[in-house]
What we know:
Low-confidence stretches of chain B: none
Mean pLDDT of chain B: 90
Low-confidence stretches of chain A: none
Largest sheet of chain B: 9 strands, mixed
Helix content of chain B: 25-40%
Strand order of the largest sheet of chain B: 2-6-7-10-1-11-12-13-14
Number of helices of chain B: 15
Number of strands of chain A: 11
CATH topology of the domain at 5-252 and 433-481 in chain A: Amidase signature (AS) enzymes
Helix content of chain A: 25-40%
Strand order of the largest sheet of chain A: 1-3-2-4-6-5-10-11-9-7-8
Number of domains of chain B: 3
Number of strands of chain B: 16
Largest interface: A-B, 42 and 28 residues
Shape of chain B: elongated
Largest sheet of chain A: 11 strands, mixed
Number of helices of chain A: 16
Oligomer: heterodimer
Distance between the termini of chain B: 75 Å
Amino acid sequence: MAKSLWMEDAVTLHELFVAGEVRATDIVEHHLERLNARDPVIRAFLHVAAEQARAQAAVQDRWSPAERAERPLSGVPVAIKDNIVTETMPTTAASRILQNFYAPYNATVVDKLYEAGAIVIGKTNLDEFAMGSSTEHSAFYPTRNPWALDRVPGGSSGGSAAAVAAGMVPLALGSDTGGSIRQPSAYCGIIGMKPTYGRVSRYGLIAFASSLDQIGPMARRVRDLRALYDVIAGPDPRDATSLPDTTDATPLSRPWRIGVPREYFGEGLDPEIRHVLDRHLSQLRAEGHEIRDISLPHTRFAIAAYYLIAPAEASSNLSRYDGIRYGFRRESRDLVTLYEATRDEGFGPEVKRRILLGTHALSSGYYDAYYLTAQKVRTLIRRDFDDAFHTVDFVVTPTTPEVAFRLGERSDDPLTMYLGDIYTVTANLAGLPAISLPVGWAHGLPVGVQWLAKPLADHQLLEAAEALEGLLPPVRFPEEVEG
Amino acid sequence: MSAAFDVIIGLEVHVELKTASKLFCGCSTAFGSAPNSQTCPVCLGMPGVLPVLNREAVRLAVRSALALNCTVRPYSKFDRKQYFYPDLPKAYQISQYDLPLAEYGWVNIRPSGQDVKRVGIRRIHLEEDAGKLNHLGQRLGDAVGSLVDLNRAGVPLIEIVSEPDMRSAEEARLYLTELRAVLSYLDVSDLRMEEGSLRCDANVSLRPRGYTGSLEELPRVEIKNVNSIRNVQRGIEYEIARQAELLSRGERIVRETRGFDDVSGRTYSQRSKEEAHDYRYFPEPDLPPLVLQSEWIEKERAALPPLPDAIRQDLIARGIPDKDVEVLVLDREAYQYWKEASPAFSDDRLLVNWMLSDVSRLLNAQGRTFGDCPVRPRQLVELLTLIQEGTLSGRMAKEVLDAMFETGQDAKTVVKQKGLSQITDESALMQVVQRVLEAHAHVVEDYLSGKDKALAYLVGQVMKETRGQAKPDLVNRLLKEAIRGGQTVSG
Lengths: 483, 491
């Protein structure tokens, strides 16, 4: 084998493959080799589909240049978060209750990946049912941050973020309910995007909170992210909440009007991260863009609203794991005991905590005070953004208030962990597209900046991100923390 | 019923809609297939699946709502009703809670000897059916296991909730019968209670005279899953008696759900409301709100077929007796049979009379309905026309009808084959009359001496000679003429 193909970005790999300069088999072998070297420590993957990937590569190597070219991701290895269902690989959502579960169908995005020629390398680790911000809540094992092995990669798409950051794959799918793509992307120094709610089909995404969940792309380069976004986005007749193909085609005019919401720069933000953000904003100003101080006054209620709506929907979505039809079952003498024992042993503590929260929030007598009030707050947050986008094109915030924390540091402190979602949940509550870009370093760890745009302005956001890439630190690999 | 109470009854009726596919996926809704053969990831509640609303189900539900005089909401939404049970794959049923598809309708019922009474419909909403459990064992209590069949899971249902307007088991029966009749003309459901495509739960309370509180606060008993209209009536009757007995002994009525045992005719306690579920309804996030354009609703309204109340008026105007009108209206197939036959025949009373007596008798004997009657409306009209023309007597026509049922042949063919034509030739018949008179001279004497019955005997003899093909009134006249003529000759 020639030079290390795992260091290349996705679009370059595809182009080399189309030009016949490398074989898909070589691309796959390089990545598997990298994976085998790094993953025993990082543990980004729950399932590695090496044989399937090799078989796919062998097939693609027989394709003509035209066949290779007409599939935008041919020759490109991709990882899939393990809460997106796949027929030929297990799908566990990192839960014991779905251990060894094979879905009888592929998620729409998985079909689209295969259709686009992507070579699926495997399924990545996550917090059980995507509930968590550290990937420590996986029922199987935690994933480590490739930049600091004693630290979390973030979550819940921590496996995908770590795999991309460590060079095991150039592209991965994540899912984002309250920041689950953007926060691990920030912690691992990669790019992650949550599209506008409804832009990417949720069919086959194991539901956590249906009105907030969105699948999105993760990559090291914006160009790659965009290529993956273009493959997975679009209406799906199987998802009634997917939107018709009406992206906002208004071309982005310069200079950009950039809103900086003061609520996102207050107490709790690590001063070093603030410093990195300030430098980013001065660069933007130097580029001629207009920076505006704005207010999103209802931000302070966002975490409270999010931690009512998301668990409420989760409590309902997770009811189907009852041990009757599939997944883990604890045999018992009667039905109620079977339900109780199955769910007691099948779910981990964080999942149980959220099911309890959500069940309570929907209970008769509490619904109005909790769920309904939270929905009203959600409307107010959406209005905050509507108002803001009358005067600005983008809103720029830190992705997280802190850098990646140490493994185990937050295990007994769920509340602090929930508060870490403060900058990301609003995009889910308002349905906006948002992207996290690696903007610098603090305490020797990656820092993410979050860019938000108005609903359906996904392409403008990607366009801006591509233009910004020159301002960002160059792509690096965490070789220095080897071991 | 003791005069100390009013009976308050409200019914919840579930109707399976006759769509080809389920409410939220593409699986077939056909009844009676092998267990779990009509399932897919969506209706099995597999991880990651999403519902997509079946538009045809919405159309059939709206059609039903309009026919039942409801106001269809331009904006309604779906909600999740949550509980754990093995027949409910997602552990929630997608239903409609606070914004149902339609509200404020009614049907008219006709309690005998009373004026037409309006029974209100509070709401109609669209929801998915659950699967079926087949318990291995005699009863649920001692079942050794249960088999889950999810073919029915996700089949579209409408739930029709009445106002508590019925005051007797009979009124409840009439309401159900009328409701079923209205729906039958819409062709929205198979309406088979025995197959579960029509299901009824009855809420029964007794309101003491002088009670001024709200109906909601009265202890209410819900009788669940009764499998025929007759048994709904029986269950309610039993429940009224049971509650009246309790009240008369000064005991409290417990709010509960009761089953009906059709062998003993009794209701039995299943579950008290104290242990009832908190369904934790909340808006279904996987489905956008259901928005219906008023133009579309009006188009559906304009496409409604004639419904029982209008049909009744029409039939009564044609002079058909009330009792027959009811039978026709409540049996859509009979009505459609009549409707096909009627334009070709001048005497509606005779037509209806034949349909509801002789044709019905033969259908019942063969376990058939008017929908698959071997004698088609055109053929019945031909037969009745032969009676009208005097070619067949009523008695002969019955014989012909029997043969038509057997062979499916037309009336004229049967008449020809059997040589059954009625003798209308007076001279031919007169010869027979003369023969009979000669053979029964003593009977003629009886008649002449004033015994009127003697003439009937003579008529009978002529009919016998002609194998029934003579027209009785003609025979009568010819006999009298011959006897009178004979007197003149001999006298």
